[in-house]
């Protein structure tokens, strides 16, 4: 027997015991992204660049790269949403970027959605994607395409399916990251058509 096993275990009476910290409900507000959100957005994205194959980027994005993307999307007026916690932390983001620079594609765009690792699996992805779909309809888009890695992105595929995206194609072995080949799954959603598209010809 070890000496410490001789000692009797002491337990404080209930009123003196440390109370567990109250659980904070998972709360957030979804709003348009602003320039001040870029550092948090960058951190979320770079986490997946470094630790996963859900993005095919291999090098972390710089603040300047994000700023340029933010300003480009803002100029086009495309939806770029964030979810913010009551303490002001950005929990995740979802954005729409042009599918192609060719003008006939102007009703079609690509979406992107990333949550901070502590915010996954709590329903936020669904809420953000739903808000992004609504904002895209208001904008006047008619098709959204999601390009999803065929490895490690089961959650994303399931999420998009749940919100009405259908698989329309796959490409195998088009990416190479962390020493292995990766493919992509294309998923498409037809949006409700507005009478008056809000966007201008690019
Ligand atoms: C993909 C992602 C946005 C999903 O958001 P989330 O908040 O975790 O998902 P939700 O909790 O809103 O789940 C919505 C639905 O998606 C499905 N789903 C989510 N994660 C899943 C998983 N890992 N496996 C299977 N289904 C999953 C479920 O059907 C769920 O519906 P349910 O709640 O009725 O069961 C989030 O997990 C994430 O940011 N992952 C890492 C980055 C990433 O992969 N981004 C997409 C790049 S293409």
State the gist of this model:
By secondary structure, the protein is α+β, with helices and mostly antiparallel strands. It has helices at 38-51, 63-76, 124-139, 154-162; strands at residues 29-32, 80-84, 90-98, 108-115, 143-149, 166-177, 180-190. It has a seven-stranded mixed beta sheet with strand order 1-2-3-4-5-7-6, sandwiched between helices.
Q: How would you explain this protein's 3D organization?
A:
There is one protein chain. Helix 1 packs across helix 2. A hairpin with a 2-residue loop joins strand 6 and strand 7. The protein is α+β, with helices and mostly antiparallel strands. The chain starts with 28 loop residues before the first strand and ends in a 12-residue tail after the last strand. The structure holds coenzyme A.
Q: Helix proportion of residues, in percent? A: 25-40%
User: What would the CATH topology be?
Assistant: Aminopeptidase
- Round the mean pLDDT to the nearest integer and report it: 92
Per CATH, the superfamily is Gcn5-related N-acetyltransferase (GNAT)
The domain tally reads 1
- The rounded distance between the terminal residues' Cα atoms is 79 Å
Number of strands: 7
Task: Return the structural class.
Answer: alpha+beta
Strand order, biggest sheet?
1-2-3-4-5-7-6
Bound molecules: coenzyme A
The CATH level-2 architecture is identified as 3-Layer(aba) Sandwich
CATH level-1 class: Alpha Beta
Overall geometry: globular
């Amino acid at each position: 027997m070890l000496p410490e096993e001789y000692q009797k275990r002491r337990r404080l009476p209930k009123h003196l015991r440390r109370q567990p910290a109250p659980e904070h409900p998972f709360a957030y507000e979804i709003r348009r992204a602003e320039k001040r959100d870029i550092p948090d957005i960058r951190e979320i994205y770079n986490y997946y660049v470094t630790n996963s194959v859900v993005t095919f980027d291999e090098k972390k994005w710089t603040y300047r790269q994000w700023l340029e993307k933010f300003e480009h999307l803002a100029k086009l007026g495309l939806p770029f949403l964030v979810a913010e916690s009551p303490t002001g932390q950005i929990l995740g983001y979802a954005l729409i970027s042009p599918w192609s620079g060719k003008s006939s594609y102007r009703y079609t765009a690509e979406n992107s959605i990333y949550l901070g690792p502590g915010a996954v699996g709590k329903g936020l992805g669904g809420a953000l994607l739903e808000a992004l779909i609504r904002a895209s309809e208001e904008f006047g888009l008619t098709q959204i395409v999601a390009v999803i890695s065929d490895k490690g992105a089961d959650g994303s595929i399931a999420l998009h399916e749940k919100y009405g995206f259908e698989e329309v194609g796959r490409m195998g072995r088009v990416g190479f990251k962390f020493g292995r080949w990766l493919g992509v799954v294309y998923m498409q959603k037809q949006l409700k058509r507005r009478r008056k598209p809000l966007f201008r010809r690019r």
